[in-house]
Design brief:
6-stranded mixed β-sheet, two-stranded antiparallel sheet, single chain, binds uracil, 203 residues, 8 helices, alpha/beta, Uracil-DNA Glycosylase, subunit E, globular, 41% helix
Length: 203
Amino acid sequence: MPERKQPPVSRDELNECRRCPLWRNATQGVPGAGAVHARIMLVGEQPGSQEDLQGSPFVGPAGHLLDEALQAAGLDRDKLFMTNAVKHFKFEWRGKRRLHKSPAQQEIEACNLWLERELEKVHPTVVVALGATAARAVLGRKSVTLAGMMETPVEHQGRLVIATYHPSFALRQRSDEARAAAFERIVRSLRAAARLARGVKTG
Ligand code: URA
């Protein structure tokens, strides 16, 4: 049976958070969700428009692609924990549409308290950072080289951190080939994370 316990960070706590200004325009804070003692934790950048409205991570288009990648990698979403480096949606209005805006370093740092709490409570063996923002947040560094971390996991605070493309990156690719290549890269990284979580060296 998949675990369904209290999440390490609650929505109420995030809705009261004033550590950065992103709460002002967002609908709600989006805490991490999933198995609270998962071996694998996936970290994205920030909630998108759908996540902001529904209050759960990875439920919009990027989440759907991620679900396909998880399935291709043989991973069960219910057994993972999914969260974001930043817990409120940052956007700008373009007509009637809310367009994603990348979070600033200060916003990532302000939100790190919540991510650290999730990492501490879930205590995963492997963290998959989806994109550079997530990798920076998980490692607490201002810059990271995503390519290197896709091939070789980094040991950090007793966990293995592996990086891959953010699913939105795959969705943004213009050609079918580029989209398929990015998707395959994500699947490979997820498979590597599964092996690492089982204690098998990847390479
Ligand atoms: N993109 C993210 O980084 N996280 C989500 O939850 C959704 C889209």
